[in-house]
Structure formats: structure tokens, C-alpha cells
Amino acid sequence: MHGMNYRIVLPADYDMGVIRRRVETRGHLLDAFPGLGLKAYLIRERGTDGSPVNEYAPFYLWNTAHGMNSFLCGPGFRGLVADFGRPAVEHWTGLAFARGPAAAEVPAAATRAARPLRADEPLEEVAARASAQLREDAARPGVHCAALLLDPRHWELLHFTLWRDAAPEEPGAERFQVLHLSRPGLDTIDTGAGPA
What we know:
By secondary structure, the chain is α+β, with helices and mostly antiparallel strands. It has four helices and ten strands, in the order E-E-H-E-E-E-H-H-E-E-H-E-E-E. It has helices spanning 17-26, 65-72, 75-84, 123-138, and strands at residues 2-6, 8-10, 36-44, 54-56, 59-62, 89-99, 109-116, 143-151, 156-163, 174-182. The chain has an eight-stranded antiparallel beta barrel. It starts with a strand and ends in a 14-residue tail after the last strand. The mean pLDDT is 95.
């Protein structure tokens, strides 16, 4: 599993209806994209759920590197670049994934929380504890699914959760609205539960 996210911050007076219409007309194009586990079309609106900005921030979980590379070098991403410029793309390796009790439903919200890792933290222990916590958190009512990801360049853990309804306020977590979910390979995302 590979995580990927790009964040396009828009002007404070930007009409977010433009992004909503974009997702309504184009979101389905990735509903069967090879190698894609899921794509959550995320937005934040200034003044809503504590957001200081208007932002379009699609989040991906890829089952294959080939699928991710095909997207980044293909017409879909090229279209986004033509409209907004080429954004910085964050990328993580997957540590754990869990489906929640609301996995069969359509998620309405998402949370994203990053935690920097100290240089003296033993990675194996941190990853094991965080993975166990992820599985526990994913069992909460209203959780669609949750992923734990590692950025080995900046040494941070990222917790990403999709929620059936409004996302709860959690310390350090950003909250997003989900406009659409493409999920061609959701049922085959590696849970990270196998032997090391």
C-alpha cells in the first residue's frame, strides 16, 4: 500500500462550487482505475470545521506502485496540472490498513493527522504500537476505514481515517469533507497484518 496526497490551497474568496462541480463531473473517472485502492476527493472550506483555508486535497491509497505511476504520468493528473499548476505530491509507505464498521457505506468526512518521529524513537516499536492503535480506532462506530502511513524522508507517521458522518474533533487532526470516493481496489488493500 502506498499513500499519496496533494493539497491545493485556494484563495479565501474562491467559489468552492467550482471544485464540487469538478468532482461531480470527473470523480467517476477513477472508479475503475487499475492499481488504485481508493481515492477520496477531499475539500476544506475556510471557516468550516476549523479550517483556516479553502483547499482541494485528494487522498489516495494505492495497491500498486505501477497504478500510482500511471496516474501521475497520465491524462488525469495532467488535467489537474493544467488547471491548478503542478502541486507537491506527498507520498508514504503503508504500515497498516483497517476497515471499520461503516466500510459498506459512503463516507462523508475524513481526518488526517501527522505526527513527527523523534530520532531516538525505535521505529519497530513505534510502528507496532501505532498499528495496534489503528486497528482499535478503526473499530469505532462510524469509521469507514483507516490507514497508517510512514514518510521515511521527513520521518513522520500519518493517520488517515474516513468517516460515515461528520468527523469528530481530534487533537492535531485536520477535518475534510468527502465529495466522492473512488474505491476500485478497496477490498484488496493490504491490511499490514501479516508476518514481518
